Amino acid sequence: MKFFLILHRWIICFSLMLFLQTSTVQQCNAFSIGDEREMGEQLLYQIRLAFPLLDDPDIFQYINDLGNEVLGVAGVQYFEYHFNIIHSDQFNAFAAPSGLIFFYSGLIEKMNHEDELVSVLAHEIGHVVSRHIAEGMDRSGKITLATSLLALASLALGVGALSQALLTGALASGQAANLYFSREAEEEADLLAYGWMKKMNRHPRGQEAMLNTMRRITRYTMGNNVPQYLLTHPHPSARLDYIQSLMAYEKKQLEALKKTDDFAFLRTKYRILSLTKDGRTLRNLYMSSLAKAEDTGVEHIMLQYALSQLDRMENNLDSSRERLRKVIQYFPKQPILLVDLGIVEMEAGGVTKALSLIEKAYKLDNNDMWATFQLARVWMSLGSHEKAEKYLQEVERRTPLYSKVYYQLGKLKAARGEPGEASYYLGKFYLYEGKFRLARHSLEAAFKKSDLRKEHREEIVQMGALMDRLEE
To answer: What is the rounded distance in angstroms from the CA atom of residue 94 to the CA atom of residue 120?
Structure first.
């Protein structure tokens, strides 16, 4: 299985390399806002083709809410930002043109507190705000959007043969070297992040902790094993000294900042780990940590949550239910835990119990797209298509790049005897999963059906043009 996954990644990345090398994008000597938007659109789809994104509504909403919190104090922006988490063990994150910011699950795995994640989010936003990426692309007099995309793709892939294959083309134009941030750029982004964290009432110790982690990893890695993030974001020791000096100077001012609640971060982190890591290894790690954690502390109870997710993945639903009830007792005002328990009940066959729990969570927080999506799934299982469609359309509106919502809408339309609409939604699901051949087949089938809505016919034409551009 691992061999086929590696082979699949090679094929996708080789195709990505060919796409980028043969793209006929006009040369530019100054990297404009318009250029950034064009590159960002292309890069987002290419990343989705090359990597699995962790885009379940709860994970997507969490990382984007945090990003928007930073943007709330960062001032007016040129772009609409999008924050994504890539399923990869690499210690990496990067900001791409037009406000695209990507985190790797391997980076989040190394974090212990939400403020560490916010510090990296703010740092990456700092690079975009300061236009460090655009400036790097302006350093060469012979830049095209294609060669810039090639360099960015190499950074996204990280260290190794796949990355080096793309870097070969990028280095020929001198472009890749221009995307590695200077000490001055790093300090500027660090300073912006430091100031924004204070404005958000978050202690910069999260930034200090993250730089400490980076410095430790740098010291214990050698040669080609240095993580990509540390190659593109160099000088962690110097940057740590700089931040610690600021913290010492402002020590009294910083004492007024409150400690951040880590519930949402730990829940999201453990959800991500349950989706990306080997269950047996995780269980051993969690049980060892549980033995060391204080019985009444947040760390102890959130490890119970982590184990509940493993139990559910392994179909040990009684244990998962029992652990979740302990967590709910500790955090009675967190509706999302009712959704998690509702999922367990649904998988155990208790659809009525699941409906009661998830409806309660939705009433407490109707902006929670995880509750909304799961509520739609429950109504689908009960055969109430009209109610299910209402909630699925809400998820589609709020998280339009979430592929699974289109799969569920396709199932719903098929059950209601609407073959054109069913094929349309299935085609859209395949598009966002990066399966263009299947997407074209479904969309072509949809176009032939009389029940297909006019606006969906027009959108199919647009999606076909988009796939043509991406496959040129």
So the answer is: 10
